[in-house]
Design a protein that fits this description.
Elements (H helix, E strand, L loop, with lengths): L6 H6 L4 H13 L5 H4 L6 H7 L3 H14 L10 H16 L4 H8 L7 H24 L1
Helix pairs in contact: 2-5, 5-6, 5-8, 6-8
């Protein structure tokens, strides 16, 4: 499971939510990213450092991008529907994709954003599994 991989990055490595999820996703989905590549998501933590879109959501979209885009997003028939699924699931769970709205629901000082990260990992995995099942039927 995806969420089995994030703890070594979030707690042991002290990465933020976005960094921990992309690193866990890189391991779990064999995305082929290098350490330097994953630095791109560093600024996404804490809602792009402003309480805006949750870093866990953005890391999820990044994983989907690596899985479903060959070269350019507008050439992919998969990225839009699978990303919409992800956003809908976050909105369904939290009523928002904004860190400022999600954090009060799940942040605890002793574990920081662990609950949000675990929920994000579950949502990412569910979306990919469901999307892959739908693709297989077509």
């Amino acid at each position: 499971m995806l969420k089995d991989n994030y703890k070594k990055y979030y707690f042991e490595g002290n990465y933020n939510c976005a960094e921990a999820i992309i690193r866990a996703g890189n391991d779990y989905y064999d995305l082929g990213l290098h350490d330097r590549d994953m630095i791109l998501l560093g600024g996404f933590g804490a809602g792009i450092q402003t309480g805006n879109t949750c870093g866990a959501v953005l890391a999820g979209v990044s994983i989907l991008s690596m899985k479903y885009i060959e070269a350019k997003a507008h050439e992919s028939t998969d990225i839009k529907p699978v990303t919409r699924m992800l956003i809908q699931r976050f909105n369904g769970r939290y009523g928002s994709v904004l860190c400022k709205d999600i954090k009060p629901q799940s942040f605890k000082p002793e574990i920081r954003c662990q609950n949000t990260i675990e929920t994000a990992c579950d949502i990412i995995e569910e979306v990919i599994e469901e999307y892959e099942s739908k693709r297989a039927l077509n």
